[in-house]
Amino acid sequence: MSETKPRLVWVGSKADEYEQEGYLHPDLDRLLNVPGTRGYIGRGLHFVRGNRLRGRKENADTINIWYLDPDVPVTNLTTNQTVHGTQPTLIGDTWGETIFKGPMVIVVKEGSAFDPRRIKDVTLTAYRDAIDFLGYYIETNGSMIDGIGAETMLAQRVIAESRAGKTTGWRINCRHDRVARGLGDMMSVAVPRAHPLFRLEGDDPLDIPGVLGFEWVMKVYDRGGKDETGLENEMARLLLPRATARDGKWEGIRNWINSPAIGSVLLVERQGREEIKSEVVKGICILIRDVVVPLMTEERALRSDGRREIVDAVRAEGKNRSLFDAIGARALGWSYEG
């Protein structure tokens, strides 16, 4: 309730003694409580069986969002800081009308039938669906993404508008596509706002551009069976590093950072609201090459202030080169934390 970051926790289960076919209840006594409160604490439950925002009317499994019943008075109940306590908030890019109080636990149950019996591990997709459900939840109506709330006129309009139209992205070409197909380093492409990179696949924004206020995400194009010859993509590779270290080694997004054979990639602004300027992309690549890469030494990776030094240098040089979006940086709520 007071933590500002979501946590992955182990949830035990217990069999229902009145059911013969192994119906399991999640054991939430330790998680759904409020320190200092005595007596009964009521619980509520949201079922999430689909996500129309991401084009899925029905999921294979059912998401259970457990929370404290607002109709049962609880002392010391405060606003959930994981959902609302950061800038931007966890639901900052959604409708964001409802304020949630108390702890919440997301559990996945196997199957989409009414009240499935067995519990399974939560996935990143289920987590994202739960965040969407909360972000588009309206008191008395329900959530715009699933169930009764999704059938309202408001929900249908909001979902349609969020997925309608196109925005401009950039295809950053690998060496093979530049040589064999005669393409330039970058080419402008029209990207539908319904593209999964804006939704399901957009949870891994680029770190260094983010420090400068740009919320960019990237996806590799289908290689079409090509081998790794010619898939080198220096511009894309320069955008991948993170100014965070783990076990004394600098990190990058997924496995791309460890292989030069990236291929051609699609680069878009995460929310699809602003068009990316090619000169800004090229400028940031040069900044990373000239400033960030030299600072990512083995010695600095072992220091607790290594990220702070890199972030300070990136911001200072970004301002000097007119590559810093102060408004975007504040909106992203960037910090020195890894």
Number of DSSP helices? 10
- Uncertain regions spanning at least 5 consecutive residues: 334-338
**What is the average per-residue confidence, as pLDDT, rounded to a whole number?**
84
Q: Describe the global form.
A: globular
Percent strand equals 15-25%
Strand order, biggest sheet? Answer: 3-4-5-6
Helicity level: 25-40%
How far from one another are the termini? 22 Å
Count of DSSP strands: 14
Strand and helix order = EEEEHEEHEEHEHEHEHEEEHHHH
What class, by secondary structure content?
alpha+beta
Write down the domain tally. Answer: 2
Major sheet attributes? 4 strands, antiparallel
Tell me the layout of helices and strands.
Layout: E1 13-15, E2 24-26, E3 43-48, E4 62-68, H1 81-84, E5 104-109, E6 119-120, H2 124-135, E7 137-138, E8 142-143, H3 153-163, E9 166-172, H4 175-180, E10 186-192, H5 207-211, E11 216-220, H6 234-239, E12 241-246, E13 249-252, E14 265-269, H7 278-295, H8 298-301, H9 306-320, H10 326-332
Antiparallel strand pairs: 1-2, 3-4, 4-5, 5-6, 7-8, 9-10, 9-14, 11-14, 12-13
Helix pairs in contact: 7-9
